Amino acid sequence: MTIPALELKGIRKAFDSGKKTVLDGISLTVGENEFVSLIGPSGSGKTTLFQLIGGLEKPTAGEVWIGGKETTGSRGHISYMPQQASLMPWRSVSANIELAVQVAGIEKKQSVKMAREWLERIGLQEYTDAYPHVLSGGMQQRVSFLRALLSPQPLMLLDEPFGALDALTRQQMQQWLMAMWEENRRSVLFVTHSIEEALLLSDRILVLSAAPATIVEEIKVPFARPRPAQLWKEPQFNELKERIQELLHQGEAVVK
Ligand SMILES: Nc1ncnc2c1ncn2[C@@H]1O[C@H](COP(=O)(O)OP(=O)(O)OP(=O)(O)O)[C@@H](O)[C@H]1O
User: Fold this and answer.
1) ipTM > 0.90, yes or no
2) What residues are paired with 158 via a beta bridge?
3) Which pTM was predicted?
4) How far away, in angstroms, is 211 Cα from ligand 1 center?
5) Which residues line the pocket of ligand 1, CB cutoff 6 A?
6) pLDDT by residue (tens digit) across 50-61?
7) In angstroms, rounded to a whole number, what is the distance separating the alpha carbons of residues 194 and 231?
8) Whose CA is nearest to atom 16 of ligand 1?
9) Cβ-based neighbour number of residue 125 at 10 Å
């Protein structure tokens, strides 16, 4: 049996001296090179869960295991892609990527070569020496994804990475991410508010209830890869979409 990239065991998190329970017994795994999405009503604790996995917060109860080792409350075990690209504005696009590669232990000269090759692969070679502010939102997110992909930690947490993009760019980025991930598989935990996005990208979807959050359902996404851009035309896509919508509405009904 292979070791899961991530295992959460009975995670509970309460704030305000224990009076406000946000997460209530979350157990989940992300297998090696598996793409798992978390979807839940607003305020259900997805960001809190990411902070726990990243070691920025400690759970009130439960354990975090990454790559077969307990990492509860300790940092540095994940690569992270946030909603806003947060590239370093004083470094060129290439230098932003080189840093991630150097952190992985690759020497400077080789890191420059790798950054150039990857920028070419994602069609941004003409921006190699540019500064991040000249890139569009979608381009910045490509660089941000690349940085996470080339980081040394094998588990990637993607926190609503397309949430700030306009609808068309978002669709293009979903297709782009799907193709990138299918070629360069990694273990991914992905948070999104978009059911379509989760269905297009994921191997499994975990649906959270409103806070105090529990996992109300696990959906295995049945579509073969590589997946077509027109996946949304499949009847089964729409059946699953309706199912998740119902679950999210049921979850919201218990919001106080
Ligand atoms: N440090 C804290 N102290 C007290 N309450 C907190 C703290 N951090 C988060 N919360 C509460 O935990 C709940 C979940 O917040 P969280 O940001 O994790 O939800 P979310 O699912 O990421 O929300 P959204 O989908 O809107 O981004 C909220 O009610 C929030 O107010």
Assistant:
1) yes
2) 81, 190
3) 0.92
4) 9
5) 15-16, 20, 22, 40, 42-48, 211
6) 999 999 999 999
7) 15
8) 45
9) 14
